[in-house]
Amino acid sequence: MNKIMDSKVKISRISRIFAQYCKAKKVIELKKQGYTYLLEESLDGNYYNKQESLINYIDEIYSMLSINSKIIIDKEYIKKDTNSYWWEKYYSRSTYYRQRIKAINEFLEIYSI
C-alpha cells in the first residue's frame, strides 16, 4: 500500500514539474513573438530568466535519461500524446507501467540532486 501511494505521489510531482515546464515554454515562445502584453508576469523582468532557467534545467535532465525513459517522459508529460494507448506500439501493459515508474524515478532522482 505504501509503495502504491509513493508512486502516486511521484506521478503527481512529475506532472506538476512538466506542467510548469510546458507553461514556461509557452511563455518564452510568446515573449519571442512579442506578445508580452498578454502575459501578466511581463512586469517582472526576472520572471523570464527564471522560466528560461527552468527550461534549461529540465532539458538538461531529459538529455541524461535512458532512451526508454525519454520516450515515456516525452509522450506522457511533454507532448501529452492524445492517444492514451500510444505505448501499445512499444510495450506490453505490464512492461509499460514498469518502465513508466522507472522513467519517473530516473527523472526525479536527477531532479532532486
Report on this model:
With 113 residues, this protein is mostly helical. It has one domain (8-111). 73% of the residues lie in helices and 0% in strands. The protein has helices at 2-32, 45-64, 67-78, 93-111. α1 crosses α2 (45-64). It is elongated, with a radius of gyration of 16 Å. It starts with a helix and ends with a helix.
Shape: elongated
Low-confidence stretches: none
Helicity, in percent? over 70%
| Content-based structural category | mainly alpha
Q: Helical element count?
A: 4
Number of strands: 0
Estimate nothing, just give the exact number of structural domains: 1
Order of helices and strands: HHHH
Give the termini separation.
Answer: 27 Å
Mind summarizing the main beta sheet? none
C-alpha-based Rg, rounded = 16 Å
Notable features of this structure?
mainly alpha; elongated
Question: What would a concise description of this structure say?
Answer:
It is built from four helices and no strands. It is mostly helical and 113 residues long.
Write the layout of secondary structure elements.
Blueprint: H1 2-32, H2 45-64, H3 67-78, H4 93-111
